[in-house]
Amino acid sequence: MQSPTIPARHRARRWLVTAAATLALVAGSLTGATAAQAASPYQRGPNPTAAALDASRGPFAIAQQSVSSAVAGFGGGVIYYPTSTAEGTFGAVAISPGYTARWSSISWLGPRIASHGFVVIGIETNTVLDQPASRGDQLLAALDYLTRSSSVRARIDASRLAVAGHSMGGGGSLEAARDRPSLQAAVPLAPWNLNKLWSDLRVPTLIIGGESDTVAPVASHSIPFYTSIPSATEKSYLELNNASHFFPQTTNTPTGRQMVAWLKRFVDDDTRYDQFICPGPSSLSISDYRSTCPLS
C-alpha cells in the first residue's frame, strides 16, 4: 500500500522548487533593474578593454575643423568631434600646449580622445609666452566658444566639460579647474606652475608627470600639486618611468589610456572605466601611481 505521506512530500518539493525559481527570477529582475539604473545616461561606446584604450583610435569616426585666430579669448585652434549623432550629445575637452609651443606639438591627443566620444578643442594661445593663469582663462574661453558659438555646439552637453594641457598649459588646466568648479575633470600633463597649493580645487584631477622631468621636476611640481589637492576631491597621479618634460609631445600609450579613462569616468560618469583607475596601471613604464580610487 502506498504511503499517504509521499504525495505531500512531492507537493512540498514542487513548492520549494517553484519558490526557488520564482525567487531567482525576481532576484535576476532586480539585479537587471539595478544595473540599468546604475548605467550612466552619458555612457558612450562599447565596453572598454585595455587593448581598445591602447589603440591609436577609439570606436567613433571623427572629423575636424579649424578655428580662426580672430576668435575672442584665445588664439584659435582645431576642433575634433565624433561624426555620429545617434548617441546624442558628447562631453567636451579643451587642451592647451605648453610654453613657447603650439597645438601641433601635442595634436595627437585631439583625435585620440575625440574618437572615444568627446568633442575636443586643441587651442593656440594668444602668445606662446602666456603664463599658466592666462592659459587657464583661455581654456575656459575655448569651452565657452565650443558650447555657445562653434558650429558643433549642438553636439555638446555644456554641463559635461573638462580641461587639460601640457607644461604651462597643464598649470593652466589647474587654474581653470579652480576658477570653474563646475568642470567635470582636469588632466594636467607635466604641469608647471609657481602656485604649489591647490587646496581649493574640487574638480576630479589626473596629474601625469615624467620621472626625469628637469623643466617641471615632479618633486617640485606634479607631486606637490597632487598632494595639496584635498583627499575629498577625486584625484590620481601617474608618473612615467624615465620620461622627460616633453613626453606629451610623443604618442605614448600610458598617457592616452589614462586620459581617456579619466575623462570617460568623470565627464561621462561611466563606471565601466573604474577598472583602469583603481588599482590603476602597473607596468615597467610606470614609476609611481597614486589614487583616491573612485570605485562605484
Task: Give a brief rundown of this model.
With 296 residues, the protein is of the alpha/beta class. It contains 7 helices and 9 strands, in the order H-H-E-E-E-H-E-H-E-H-E-E-H-E-H-E. The chain has a single domain (50-291), classed as 3-Layer(aba) Sandwich (Rossmann fold), CATH 3.40.50.1820.
The helical percent reads: 25-40%
Order of helices and strands: HHEEEHEHEHEEHEHE
Low confidence ranges: 1-37
Task: Determine the strand fraction and express it as a percent band.
Answer: 15-25%
CATH classification, class level: Alpha Beta
Topology at a glance:
Layout (H helix, E strand, L loop, with lengths): L4 H34 L11 H5 L7 E6 L9 E6 L7 E7 L12 H6 L3 E6 L8 H17 L7 E11 L1 H12 L5 E5 L15 E6 L11 H7 L6 E6 L12 H14 L19 E6 L5
Parallel strand pairs: 3-4, 3-5, 5-6, 6-7, 7-8
Antiparallel strand pairs: 1-2, 2-4, 8-9
Helix pairs in contact: 4-5
How would you describe what is shown here?
- With 296 residues, the protein is α/β, with parallel strands linked by helices.
- The protein has a single domain, classed as 3-Layer(aba) Sandwich (Rossmann fold), CATH 3.40.50.1820.
- It is built from 7 helices and 9 strands.
- It has helices at 5-38, 50-54, 109-114, 132-148, 168-179, 222-228, 253-266; strands spanning 62-67, 77-82, 90-96, 118-123, 156-166, 185-189, 205-210, 235-240, 286-291.
- A 9-stranded mixed β-sheet has the order 1-2-4-3-5-6-7-8-9, sandwiched between helices.
- Helix 4 (132-148) crosses helix 5 (168-179).
- 46% of the residues are buried.
- The model is unreliable at 1-37 (pLDDT under 50).
- Keywords: Hydrolase, Signal.
- Residues 1-38 form the signal peptide.
- Residues 37-294 form the PET hydrolase/cutinase-like domain.
- Belongs to the AB hydrolase superfamily.
